[in-house]
Amino acid sequence: MTDSNKVSQMVWDQVQSRSSSGNHPLVSGHPNRPIPKLMVCSILFVSLTYLLYTLKLLTTSAQQTFNHTPFTSYLRRSTSFTSAPLILNQTAVTAPPHHGGRDVREKQKVVMQMEQAPPKPKPTEIHDVVFGIAASSKLWQQRKEYIKIWYKPNQMRGVVWLDDRVKYSAQDNRTLPPFRVSSDTSKFPYTNRKGHRSAIRISRIVTETLRMKMDNVRWFVMGDDDTVFITANLVRILRKYDHTQYYYIGSLSESHIQNIFFSYGMAYGGGGFAISYPLAKALAKMQDRCIQRYPSLYGSDDRMQACMAELGVPLTKELGFHQYDVYGNLFGLLAAHPVTPLVSLHHLDVVEPIFPNVSRVQALQRLMLPTKLDSSGIMQQSICYDKTKSWTISVSWGFAVQVFRGIFSPREIEMPSRTFLNWYKRADYTAYAFNTRPVSRNPCQKPFVFYMSSVRMDSELNKTVSEYERHHVPHPLCRWKMANPNELETVIVHKKPDPHLWDRSARKNCCRAMESKERRRMVIDVGVCKDGESRDSVNGENQGTYIDCVRKCSCIQF
């Protein structure tokens, strides 16, 4: 008997034994009916074929999974039980395979979108700004000197808009923006009896400048011919905002009465304001119709604000734009400048020169010297104390230093002293839009003032060295038993330039009274407050801060 016959005989014997034991037969029918050998072979063949097909299918699926690059690297990382990524990816490892594939595809899609995203726009620079300067032909010869102080033709773009033609000398062409004569506005009604219809002409300066179709403009900045800009700080302010959106940026008047008469939501044009390019385009489309609806308004500022209201754009307030609706001496305002970049000064023909014994133009030219070295720190106030002499020291960097007898709280010193008069001369100090304090209540409280006379950069120390000379004015006799600041003649201030000052949260710098070998000279260091340094902690042997000095001597209240 052949081998195949033997196998068939063995299978047949097993079937017969199962049938005789009472089990169910393999096929339906009578139990004693023989099962064909062909059927048994067919069953075995089908079973074997199914087993081989299943094994092949599993093998192919595994190869495709491991050939996928992201999954291969992912599984290799997951098998490293001692590495940190195992814990971070534990959830992903236990996820079903089909979810993992979808997650990988989504991640790849995000990466591709990031790679295809447009690059981040460059920060705003001064050449992205166009100035529109409102000027009068009658005052041009006098006020053009203010523009020469801050405008740099090789770096900036701007247009002077006049009511009539003026003579430009060869020097004017080199130092001033080009001028244009504003278009005729006689068709617009003007019914305000106290104002002048030139307000309509001035209110259209932004629109007329836009229609000149200059390239690559992000911002239009409006100002008067007696406005002086600190352009580096202007750029710092504008960088905070998206120039592709609608922005109307400026500040209010110092006079509460002015803000009531006009609006607390209006940017005063003399202090300057900025309008983003898209907003200027929207304004140009509707401004002429808008102006027709407001013939009774007084000036250009309120007409501009009326159109902004129709466009639904509110004023974004930046306190560094200064209208200076005051008379007299700006010292109190400048020596206690708010904690924000100084952007502009206005009404310079109305107030006294900011430095004594010089002309207005010469005073502003002196102010520009420290601005070239550290524009972010100009006019910023720091307050410190000399506890051995019981003095309070206020430094307005680049402008002036004040030394007071006694200890005054920072809360009081940071208030502007009333060295100026309200725009409405019959109004008292309650008519200001901010808190003020008297210059002094007691003769002994009158500050000793030192104005900046020179400034230079010390390359070895990498610090600015500014010198402040005593402004000699009569001081009353004081019988307080403490050191007399009358002996001081000079104050030297060391300060490291800090171009990123306004990239951080707003905070005053700290100042420290240093040792000085000369009796008539005081040395002060100004800089970013150190970790843990504040005005209620001790800062060395000769100096202290408010709480420390109050323990030693009586506190002076205004």
Summarize the structure in words.
This protein is an alpha/beta fold and 558 residues long. Among the domains are: 126-323, Spore Coat Polysaccharide Biosynthesis Protein SpsA, Chain A; 362-527, Distorted Sandwich (Cation-dependent Mannose-6-phosphate Receptor, Chain A). Helices cover 34% and strands 17% of the residues. The protein is extended.
How do the strands and helices of this protein lay out in sequence?
Elements: H1 3-20, H2 37-67, H3 69-78, H4 85-88, H5 90-93, H6 97-116, E1 129-134, H7 140-150, E2 157-162, H8 170-175, E3 179-181, H9 198-203, H10 205-210, E4 219-224, E5 228-229, H11 231-238, E6 248-250, H12 256-261, E7 273-276, H13 277-292, H14 300-311, E8 316-317, E9 326-328, H15 331-335, E10 344-345, H16 360-373, E11 381-386, E12 391-396, E13 400-405, H17 410-413, E14 420-422, E15 448-458, E16 463-470, E17 490-495, E18 510-514, E19 521-527, H18 546-552
Parallel strand pairs: 1-2, 1-4, 2-3, 6-8, 17-19
Antiparallel strand pairs: 4-7, 5-10, 6-7, 9-14, 11-12, 12-13, 13-15, 15-16, 16-17, 18-19
How many separate helices? 18
Output the CATH topology of the domain at 126-323. Spore Coat Polysaccharide Biosynthesis Protein SpsA, Chain A
Q: What's the overall geometry?
A: extended
Mean pLDDT: 84
As laid out across the biggest beta sheet, the strand order is 11-12-13-15-16-17-19-18
What is the second-level CATH architecture of the domain at 126-323?
A: Alpha-Beta Complex
Oligomer: single chain
Q: Terminal Cα separation, in Å?
A: 130 Å
Helix content: 25-40%
